[in-house]
């Protein structure tokens, strides 16, 4: 059963406005002798056993190696990693052999999107390395090739790009509400959580998705944006929801319905 032990809330911004300062240094993670070869072997094994249709490629990522929370500001120190390192260094066999080696810790973003007819959008994923056929909110890793604007790593652009890629909706320069920062302890990595209200109905969003070529989004459903409906959904799907999707929806519920609503998940 998924619990708050699996999903660490590193920053709860539901009651305050926080800005994120992302400080990037173009350095690579340093691995001991033999570890890079083990990373390559584990990657090749993953490619061999992956299911047909699974999207698995070694994209560049931003690794979080420092986190500092100050008054109204979060500072994240970033360096280089990639999906190969992320996949390999979280494997038990790698951790047992190289317990002191860096754990790739790539930064991602996700978003609680609501519709004009009062639904929260939840996707079921497909063809993904992790959480395939599980529920999640829209999200993904920050891409060093796509999400650096004016020489600055831009998480807002990253989530707006993900919404465009996954739902084929244009929300560029519209997303402003930050919910917080959550951490996936099962597939280790942090995600910045956002919240945004669309000026579209659930039916319009689903129709837009149906008109496009399927990607990693198998389907999009609407969870009524009410205290009981969201709580029922989260309790019912603790076995088949992504950890950070769970955390993002918890923070959305806390911001929308209050601390008393949120408290039921801490028991």
CATH superfamily: Nucleoside Triphosphate Pyrophosphohydrolase
CATH architecture: Alpha-Beta Complex
Beta-strand percent range: 25-35%
Structural domain tally: 1
Mean pLDDT: 93
Q: Uncertain spans, ≥5 residues at pLDDT below 50?
A: none
* Structural class by secondary-structure content: alpha+beta
Key attributes of the depicted protein:
single chain; 267 residues; alpha+beta; Nucleoside Triphosphate Pyrophosphohydrolase; 32% strand
Kindly summarize this structure in a few lines.
Helix content is 30%, strand content 32%.
Topology, please?
Elements: E1 7-12, E2 19-28, H1 35-49, E3 60-70, E4 73-82, H2 83-89, H3 92-97, E5 108-114, E6 119-125, E7 135-136, E8 138-141, E9 148-149, E10 152-153, H4 155-167, E11 177-184, E12 189-197, H5 202-210, E13 217-224, H6 227-236, H7 243-257, H8 259-263
Parallel strand pairs: 2-4, 5-12
Antiparallel strand pairs: 1-11, 3-4, 5-8, 6-7, 6-13, 9-10, 11-12
Helix pairs in contact: 1-2, 6-7
Question: Would you kindly provide a written description of the structure presented here, covering whatever features stand out?
Answer:
The chain has 267 residues and is α+β, with helices and mostly antiparallel strands. The protein has one domain (7-266): Alpha-Beta Complex (Nucleoside Triphosphate Pyrophosphohydrolase), CATH 3.90.79.10. Helix content is 30%, strand content 32%. It is built from 8 helices and 13 strands. It has helices at residues 35-49, 83-89, 92-97, 155-167, 202-210, 227-236, 243-257, 259-263; strands at residues 7-12, 19-28, 60-70, 73-82, 108-114, 119-125, 135-136, 138-141, 148-149, 152-153, 177-184, 189-197, 217-224. Strands 1-11-12-5-8 form a 5-stranded mixed beta sheet, with helices on both faces. A 3-stranded mixed beta sheet has the order 2-4-3. Strands 7-6-13 form a 3-stranded antiparallel beta sheet. Strand 11 and strand 12 (189-197) form a beta hairpin. Helix 6 packs antiparallel against helix 7. The chain starts with 6 loop residues before the first strand and ends with a helix.
